[in-house]
């Protein structure tokens, strides 16, 4: 597990930084606008959102190493070609690269479900959510600093090398994706999608979308608030405080004796985000960030745990791919929606919009989970562990 988390962290940090690397290349290397850079970043993100279920289904049917071989080779070709591609071709290639991105995050989640007992799983997923926070704290800042020292092409090559190395490392480890008692899952056939994609799973996916929409919207609201106060240079400090608080919250949540319902964690995260709009300078935003940050990683951890419990072993890859797609869509839509709220009101409206989005997703998840026939033992609607 330690080896897997270490190699996966390398891949996830590079994947997280890939959007920033392409942005730096388009702005500095091609000398184009940030709007043009946003188009390439959107193409990559859209590809990743659509590719999650596709790659998960391929893993379920063809095996992990086959999928990793295909994705690693394509990533190597794409990132080596980035510095020489004209803008129009780069946008199409970025979409293809996102569609076949190395599935480090969903594979890690599948392996955690297979390698842990029911009693260990929540703590393991808490570590996985902490890993995600570390990738966001480390990846993009390194790319920005690196871009200021060397050429954007070198930055692209370095990010690509890290993605390839992470994917190759996971392939060498070849972690089990099914527990010993699930090894014969293929012999009974793959269940039809409507058999497992019911109200319970849809509830989790809605909450996955709402969580990342809230988080990406919060980042934009922080920048807007500090820009209005003339303190935008402190944005990195506020975001770092938020990330560290999230890491602490994830570790504490993993050590709790009993889980909390996913909808409750997301609802509390939404409620704690709204008051951040009352802060008007960076010290108070740091205080507000601690309160909300403590709930971020636990919420993401609970979502991942719920997906692993609700998905049958033979389709767990597709289910975790759907989770990744829902979270990618939330990240993609959070900033524009919160940006509109800021434009028509004040920066505080951004925190309100982000928090209300989380509350709406939590309410929808709660109502959908109550319709699930398995709600009595579902981690999204019960705080009683199946262990």
Give the overall average pLDDT: 81
CATH topology of the largest domain, by name, is Growth Hormone, Chain: A
Could you name the ranges where pLDDT drops below 50 across 5 or more consecutive residues? 374-387
Helix/strand-derived class?
mainly alpha
Tell me the number of strands: 0
Could you give me the name of the CATH homologous superfamily of the largest domain? MFS general substrate transporter like domains
The backbone outline, from C-alpha atoms, is globular
Radius of gyration: 20 Å
Counting DSSP H or I runs of 4 or more residues, the number of helices is 14
Amount of helix: over 70%
Instruction: Count the domains.
Output: 2
Cα(first) to Cα(last) distance is 20 Å
Could you explain how this protein is built, in words?
By secondary structure, the chain is mainly α. It has 2 domains: 2-177, Up-down Bundle (Growth Hormone, Chain: A); 193-377, Up-down Bundle (Growth Hormone, Chain: A). The chain is built from 14 helices and no strands. The radius of gyration is 20 Å and the shape is globular. The two termini are 20 Å apart. Pfam families: MFS_1. GO terms for molecular function: transmembrane transporter activity.
